[in-house]
Amino acid sequence: MLVRGASALARELGVSPLVVGLTVVAFGTSAPELAVNVTAAWRGDAGLAFGNVVGSNVFNLLGILGVTALVTPLPVPEQILRVDLWVMGAATALLVAAAVTGLRVTRGEGAGLLALFVGYMVWTVT
Question: Which of 21, 47, 61, 94 is a good FRET partner for 1, with 20 to 30 A between their CA atoms?
């Protein structure tokens, strides 16, 4: 249902399914993680919040993508190779830099990461 709905949304909006996958579907599947992380951080369990983010992304990249590619080979769209892969690499580098400086991600660093995400989303949609 998710795939059919996302494909229909992309057709309706006249945008590529890649854009819908990078925005609507990604947000929809990450919203529960956001709730867990906010709750964990609010309760002072930063290890759970940070581990959830890193673990989820590593599992999605290696586990989910790996299993999917076992079922059927996946062509990699040109935009992902040209732009999105580099954005993901830069975001990872920024997160590592933020995490190792002072061994914490401060509110300012979090605001910066969020601003970069919003900028990326705006750029992706437009």
Answer: 61
What is the per-residue pLDDT across 47-70, written as a single tens digit (0 to 9) for each? 898 888 888 889 988 999 999 999
Range of the domain at 116: 77-126
Number of independent structural domains in the chain: 2
Distance CA 102, CA 122 (A): 31
pTM of the predicted protein model: 0.74
Q: For the segment 84-124, what is each residue's pLDDT rounded down to a tens digit? A: 899 999 998 998 888 888 788 888 999 999 999 999 988 88
85 shares a domain with 40: no
17 neighbors 10 (Cβ within 8 angstroms): yes
DSSP for 90-116? HHHHHHHHHHHSTTS--HHHHHHHHHH
Domain shared by 57 and 11, yes or no: yes
Among 118, 123, 30, smallest CA distance to 79 is for 123
